[in-house]
Amino acid sequence: MAVRDLDHVLGQIASRLASRFVGTFSPQTVERYVFESYVQLRRGARISAHLPSLTENFATERLTALAKVEGGIAGPVPEVLFLCAYNAGRSQMAAALADQYAQGRVQVHCAGSHPADWLDESVLEALGEWGIEVPHAYPKPLTDDVLLASDVIVTMGCGDACPVLTGKRYLDWAIPDPAGRDMPAVRAIRDDIDARVRALINDLTLTST
């Protein structure tokens, strides 16, 4: 896409989001977040064909999180962030399962300390076996706004790259990386994550109630 066309597309995204967040953020702040989000996602070459739509989703998530942190909007439900190194396997699987069980009672995020270019196909296959489709999922970098907005942060193998903030509830799940494993191993990882996610969602929804 030519630079002029790209600027036009990103400008349209910024205009839509500025209307959505009117009274919370200035148009200039929204525009900056849109362009920053595009630059961060552009590093994943495999998703370049869908970058405008992904940029809008990513910028919306970041601005919503920032609004909560700054008190611009209320946080009616708990927010959980699943973190792993590449945001291509474990954290994506946990987020998909959490969305399935939470049904809007928990806001779910996922990110990676070093996001990959694409999702692990075996993870998508394992989720698909349970009828869970994630057509709009993509590896995302960890950003401060989403991190600060999260009430619970679940780490899965991102090591020292996972930041630690005071006042947050942290859980570290020792779950192997599904990358490069055969399907029986990936299914075992899925089942392990599923049990942990069910328990976490039950805990969060009971606590918030």
Automatic annotation (TrEMBL):
Keywords: Arsenical resistance. NCBIfam families: MSMEG_6209_Nter. It comes from Micromonospora solifontis. Residues 78-203 form the Phosphotyrosine protein phosphatase I domain. This is Arsenate reductase ArsC. PANTHER family: ARSENATE REDUCTASE (PTHR43428:SF1). Pfam families: LMWPc, Phosphatase-like_N. InterPro entries: Phosphatase-like_N, Ptyr_pPase, Ptyr_pPase_sf.
